[in-house]
Batch of 3 targets.
Target 1
Amino acid sequence: MSEWETVIGLEVHCELATKTKLFCCCPNDFGAEPNTYVCPVCLGLPGSLPVLNERAVEFALRVGEALHCVIPEESIFHRKNYFYPDMPKNFQISQYDEPVCGNGWLAITNPDGTARRVGVERAHLEEDTGKTSHVGGGGGRIHGADHSLVDYNRAGVPLLEIVSKPDLRSPEEARAYVAELRGVLEAIGVSDVKMEEGSLRIDANISLRPAGSEKLGTRAEVKNMNSLRSLVRALEYEAGRQAEVLETGEAVVQETRHWDEEAGRTYSLRSKEEAYDYRYFPEPDLVPLLPSAEWRDKVRAAMPELPAARKARLVEAWGLSEVDAGVLVGTPGLADYAEGAAAAGAPGRDVTNWVTGDLLAHLKESGSSPGDLALAPAGLAELVKLVADGTLSRPLAKEVLGAALAGAGGGSPAAIVAERGLAQVSDEDSLVAAVAAVLDAHPGEVERYRSGEDKDRKKLRGFFMGKVMAEMKGRGNPQVLNRLLDEALGAS
Ligand SMILES: [Zn+2]
C-alpha cells in the first residue's frame, strides 16, 4: 500500500432539525406512523406549490458561518430529475451551480495530534426522499423481496449536503473530519446529528494515485456507512480493493458501491451518474434566494461557541489534556453533561475523570446518549463531592455510580449511600479496633513482619491490609487505615 496515496472526499447529508419540512408545513419528525406526515406538496400532487422554509435557510447560513464559507448574495434552486419510487415528484428540488454556501474550510486534528484545514467545496439545501423498505425475503434488499413499501414521511425533510474537497488522505482522517463536523453541527443547533437515525449520512468518494502524483485517480463512491466505525472500515476495505485492482494492471471503474456492514465489504451498486444524467434546470416554482446582509449579520452575531474554541477553553479552565477535552467535545452531549456537573459545583477535572472513564464506557455499552442518563449532571457533582469529603472511596464510588446509572436512588448518589449503608468509615475508634483485632489474630505474621526482610514485609503488609479491609466489609477509609496500620505495626 505504501506506493499508493489514498484520496478521499466526503459528502455529508445533514437532516436539519426544523419543525417542518423544507417546502411544506408537514412535521419534520422521526419515527411516526408511515405516511402520516404528508400533504399535496411533499407528495408531489399536480398543482401544489413549494414554499421555502425560512428556518432551514437560517440553519444553512449558520453552517456557512461555522465552516468559513463564502455566502453568495444570491443562490437558486434546481430540479434534479430522476425516477425513483421514494420520490413522488420524479424530481428532487436541490441546488446545483449556485448553492447557498460556497468555498470554506474546517480545521481538524489528526490522530497523531497534527492540525490541518480540510477544504469545503460547498453546502447546498435540498429535500430528502421518502424511505423504501423491501419486505418478505432478500434480507431487506430489493432482490428476493416479495413486495416493497414506501413511507413518504421523510420526503421533503430539509437536508444540507456538505461537500468536502478531496483533501482527506486516510480513513482515520476522514473519521476525524466527520467527528469534528458532527460536533460543529451539534454545537450550532442545526441537527440532532444521530447517525443511527439517518440524521447524518455520509457518502465517500475514494481513489488511489501513485504517491507523489498530482493527478487524481478514478474514484468510486461508497454509500451506506452508518457509523464512524463503519466509515473507517469501508474506506480501508475500498482502498485495499482498489490497490489490488491497480496492481494487477486493471483500471478502477467509476461507480457507486454499497458498504455491507456484516460482510465487511463493498459491492458494485450501479455505474456512477454524471450531472448531465439528471437534466438539472432552475426550479420554476421558487424565486431566487437572497439572504439580506442584515440577516447574515444577525446569524453571525448569534453564533455559539464552536467545538474547537470550547476544547481550548476546557483545556485552559479545567487543566485538561488535549485528549480528554477532545473526548468531551467530540462525543455528542458529553461536554454539555460535564459542564452541567461543573456548574453544580464539582471541579471540572474530577468531573472529566468520571465522564471520560466509567460514564463513557456505560454510554458505549448501553448505546444511550448523555441526555438520557438516569444520573443527571447534578447527581454526578454529588458523587464527586462524596469522594472529595471522604464519604466514599474510589471503589465504593464506582459501585454507587453503577447503581445510579441503573436508576437506583432516584438519581441521587447520596440517597444510594444512605439506603445501602455504603458510606466509608473514617471514624478512628472503629478502625483502630479493626486493626487491633487483625493483628491480635495473627501474632506469628506480626512477628515475622517486624523481624523480616523487605520483600517479605511488603507481602505481609498487603496481607494485613486485606484482612483489615475485610473486617471493615470494604468500607474502611484506606488512607486512615494505612496510617493506623503503620502505627500499630511500628509499635513493639
Ligand atoms: Zn407536506
Note: The chain has a mean pLDDT of 92.
Target 2
Amino acid sequence: MKRRVFAAIFLSAFAIAAAQAEPASSIRLPAPQKSGGKPILDAVAARASAPGSGFPTQAISQEELSTLLWSASGRNRPDKWVVPFGQGVDPYVDIYVAGEEGIYRYAWQDHSLKLAAGGDLRARINPQGFAKAASHIFLFVSNKDSRTKKGANSPHLVKWTHVATGAMTQQLYLVSDSLGIGARYAETMDVNFVRQTLNIPSDEEPICIFALGKR
Ligand SMILES: Cc1cc2nc3c(=O)[nH]c(=O)nc-3n(C[C@H](O)[C@H](O)[C@H](O)COP(=O)(O)O)c2cc1C
C-alpha cells in the first residue's frame, strides 16, 4: 500500500515537472520601450561587440526582449518599419529567438513569439563559447513569402535580405547598448542544424546570428 502511494506521488510529481518543462506555443510580448534611453550619438560612439570570452551572461527580461525585437523589425508607422524594406513590402527577414525554453519566431504582426522548436538549442546553433553563455540568440533567416506577397519584383531580392539584416543588426547593436546588454554578430552557425530544426527550405537563407546577454 505504502509503495503504491509513493509511486502515485512520484508519478504525479513527474507529470507536473514534465508539464512545467513544456514551452508555451505562443508568447504575447509586453509593449516595447519606444522613447528615452541613451542619446543616439552616445550609443553610436559606444558601439562594439561584446568579447567572445567573458560574454555577459545575465538574463534578458521579456520587456527588453520586446524592445530589442521591435527595434529590429517592428512597425513604427501604418505599414512601415523601423528599418527600411524595399518597395515598402512586409519584412522579408524573419528573426528567430533561441533561449532556454526553445526557439521562437518573432511575429511582427501581433508582436508575439511563436514556438518553432522546443529545448535549449543555443549551443547547437553556434559552437562558440559565447553562444552557450548568451541569454538569447537571434537568428536571421530570409523569408521570400513576405517579400513577394506584395509584388516586390526586383532582380536583387537576395541582396535586399542582406541589406535588411545589416540594418536590423546595427539597430540591435545600438539599442542593446542603450539597455545595458552586450551583443555580438556572428556568421558562424550550423546551417544544416538550423535548416532541419526550423524547416527552412533550400531557397531560403539562414544569414547570421546575433548573441545577446545582460551586463
Ligand atoms: C560579417 C561578420 C561576420 C562575423 N562573424 C563572426 C563569427 O562568426 N564569430 C564571432 O565570434 N564574431 C564574428 N563577428 C564579430 C566580429 O569579430 C567583430 O564585429 C569584429 O571583431 C569587430 O569588432 P567590433 O564589432 O567590436 O567593432 C563577425 C562580424 C561581422 C561583421
Note: The two ends are 53 Å apart (CA to CA).
Target 3
Amino acid sequence: MFDYRSMFDLSGKTALVVGAGSGIGEACSHGLAAFGADVLCADVDAEAAENTAQEIRSQHKGKAEAIGLDMLSPRRVRAVVEREGTPDVLVSTPSINVRKPLLEITDEEFDRVVELNLKGTFRLVRDFGRGMAERGSGSIIAFSSIRAQTVEPGQGVYAATKSGTVQMLRALAAELGPRGVRVNTVAPGVVETPLTAQIKDSPDWYDSYAAKSILGRWAQPHEMVGAVVYLASEASSYVTGSFMLVDGGWTAADGRFTPPL
Ligand SMILES: NC(=O)c1ccc[n+]([C@@H]2O[C@H](COP(=O)([O-])OP(=O)(O)OC[C@H]3O[C@@H](n4cnc5c(N)ncnc54)[C@H](O)[C@@H]3O)[C@@H](O)[C@H]2O)c1
C-alpha cells in the first residue's frame, strides 16, 4: 500500500537554499530541515547564512551547513557545484526591486535587476540542473511573484524578470522532465521580509496591500514554506512546470470595490 504519511518526508535528501540568510529563503531552510532534509544554506551574506544554519542545528537537530555564495559570480557558482556536488532540491530566492516609473529607470538599474533576478536564477538552475539531469532526479524551485501576472506602476523591470523566470523555468521543466527532474515556480503575494520593509514603514501603503488580498492581510515568511516542502517532496511527484500562487487570493479578485449584496 502507498505510504501516504511519508509523502512530505525529506529524510536523506539534500537541499541547497540560495538566499537562506533572510526572509523567505531563511524560512524555507528551516522548513526543509524540519521535514528531514540536510540543508546547505547559501547567501551572498555568509554571516546571515551561518546564522540560519546555526539556528537549524539548534532548533531542528537537523544537519545544516552554511556557505557564502554570490549568484552573480559564474566562477563562484561553478566552484560550489564542484565542491558540494548536486543537491536533491534547489531553492532559489534572491531578487531585488527598483521601484521607479519605467521612464525614469536607467540602463544601470535595468541591468542590476535583470542581472540578479533573471540571469542569476538562470545561472543557478543551469549549473545545478545539469548534475540533476545526469543523475536522473531532482526538484528545482525558484521564486517568482504575483508580479509575473499582475502589475502596478513602478514595478516594470521587476515584473518582467518575475514573468521571465516563470517562462524560463517552464522551458527547463520541459527540457528536464524526460530526465527525471521537476522544475516549478512559487509566486508569493506580499510577505513581511526585509525586501518589503520600505512598505511596512509606510502605513497607507502597508494597509492598502493588506486589503488587496482576499485574506485581508500580509503573509509571514513561514507561510511560503508549505509550497516549497510540497514541491521538494514526493507529494508533488506529478507536478512540474507549475506556477504556484501563494498570494492570499490577491490575483483571484480585483479587490477595488465590494458591491452591496
Ligand atoms: N517579500 C515579498 O513580499 C515577496 C513578494 C513576492 C515575491 N517575492 C520573492 O520572494 C523571493 C525572496 O524574497 P525575500 O522577501 O525573502 O527577500 P529578502 O531580501 O528578505 O532575502 C533575499 C536574500 O537573498 C540574498 N541575496 C541577495 N543577492 C544575492 C546574491 N547575489 N547571491 C546570493 N544571495 C543573494 C540576500 O542577502 C538575502 O538574504 C524573491 O525572489 C522575491 O522576488 C517576495
Note: Residues 18-19, 21-25, 43-45, 48, 69-72, 93-95, 116, 120, 143, 145, 188, 190-191, 193-196 surround nicotinamide-adenine-dinucleotide (CB under 6 Å).
